[in-house]
Specification:
The chain is of the alpha+beta class and 135 residues long. It has five helices and five strands.
Amino acid sequence: MLLSLFCILITIFLLFIIRRLFNNFKIELNTPFKLNIKSDKVIVLSREGCPWCDKLEPELLSAKNSYTKITMNDDGTFTFDETFTQLDKKERESIMKGYRHLMDNKGYYFPTIIYKNDYHLGLPDSKTLNEILNE
């Protein structure tokens, strides 16, 4: 009985210490983050097998703005559409550098849509998506 009481007190003490440690822990969710991609295209970052990316596909096919699509494969490699491969080398490098910078700072969210150095993580609502693709 005494051993059980001792274990309970130790557990309560450890939980108290852990809570005090994490009370000072803050996550800033809305930190401003700027991209510097030199492209006038809508850039769509997609993932193979992503259901939200699949929902975006019909919207892309009817888009008025020109876009390029980069798909991350399951093995971590990328597949580039024909539009991307036809861009000049500096524009391609700018897009990939910006993409890596965004993923390193914000994480991997699919789809991610980048337009005019503004980014949308995940599938935007239909109004925003229409503004991006048909502006």
